[in-house]
Amino acid sequence: MKKKINKHILKSNTTVKKALKKLNSLENKFCLVVNEKKKFIGTLTDGDLRRGLLKNLNVNDSVNKFVFKKSIITKIELNKQKINYILSRHSINCIPYINSKNEIVDVYTDQQNEEIEKIKNSMLIMAGGKGLRLRPLTNKIPKPLLLVNNKPIIERIILIAKKQGLSKFYISINYLGHKIKNFLGDGMKYGVKINYIEEKKPLGTAGAINLIKNFKNNLIVSNADIISNINFKEMIKSHIKNKSLITISAKIFYEKNNYGRLITNAGRLKKVIEKPENNFLINAGIYVLNPKIKKYLGRFEHLDMTDLINFLIKKKKKINVFPLHEKWLDYGLKKNIIKYLNK
């Protein structure tokens, strides 16, 4: 086995929690899962983990429950042209090379050193809020311009998105909006294009969407106080595949009970679970919206994203969730922003 693939090898009895840490540390985000005899079982990607978590599998479960066991493999050596053809045709990021004993010999990945693939979708950053929870920090400075490790929150959001291929941004502004506009400008200094949506009065976290002209493609929408390494390409891909009106990013949170749980039936003890740990999902403040959403926005003068989502659920429209296991932090909370302020 070649040394370069050792870092991608994962034993089937590894917990998902450990697998997440490993996966997030890899540049090429895939793992090759083997059993106790080092025989190849299948591949594991962040998509496999997201799908498993949506099925309510637990982070303490083994990756054996999440692994994709119908991976495309090869049992012969492949040339560069063939590798790239297979990867592109099947939209995968690796091809395991397996011998007759079902052992991993090598793994083929993208052989082309191309620039970052551009994402045609635009991103709306909702930066019109007053940041009331952060007073007095936001008395004279709008929340998106508060510094995190000496760089404004909104600048970090733009740079993270640019790194993934996004180049077109809308920013909704109201409270102290001129300061945001003066700082970011038209985006030229970042190599992106920025257009501003100036709210004459606060429109809510979803109200500004209706002011975007030529909204023809799926739109990424983000709160201006969320910094995350979310995979935008995967989120858009999931959104399109599920034919969703809205896809909501959902941060996975872990909750541990410090007490043993008693399982009873009619007063009789059946089982004791020692200090159980559960995982649950919360709204992570990043969304992908289908252009068809606009026909539901005109009836509202002021609209928050949560109210829009609940309205659409009542209308039985398709809303899907995209689990987020990447780094994520809400700087709308004072304890978080103070921790990193001006560091």
SSE sequence, one letter per element: EHEEHHEEEEEHEHEEEHEEEEHEEH
User: Helix/strand-derived class?
Assistant: alpha/beta
Mean pLDDT: 83
Tally of DSSP helical segments = 8
Taken from the alpha-carbon principal axes, the silhouette is globular
Largest sheet: 7 strands, mixed
CA(first)-CA(last) distance: 44 Å
> Order of strands in the sheet with the most strands?
10-9-6-11-16-13-17
- What's the Cα radius of gyration? 23 Å
What percent strand? 25-35%
Query: Low-confidence segments, ≥5 residues, pLDDT <50?
Result: none
Helix content: 10-25%
Number of strands: 18
Provide a short characterization of the protein structure.
With 343 residues, this protein is an alpha/beta fold. The chain contains eight helices and 18 strands.
How is this structure best described in words?
The chain is α/β, with parallel strands linked by helices and 343 residues long. The chain contains 8 helices and 18 strands.
Keywords:
8 helices, 3-stranded mixed beta sheet, 343 residues, alpha/beta, 7-stranded mixed beta sheet
How would the blueprint of this fold be written?
Elements: E1 9-11, H1 16-25, E2 30-34, E3 40-45, H2 46-54, H3 80-90, E4 95-98, E5 104-108, E6 123-127, E7 147-148, E8 151-152, H4 153-163, E9 168-173, H5 177-184, E10 193-198, E11 219-223, E12 226-228, H6 232-241, E13 246-256, E14 261-265, E15 268-273, E16 277-289, H7 305-314, E17 319-324, E18 328-330, H8 334-340
Parallel strand pairs: 1-2, 6-9, 6-11, 9-10, 13-17
Antiparallel strand pairs: 2-3, 4-5, 7-8, 11-16, 12-18, 13-16, 14-15
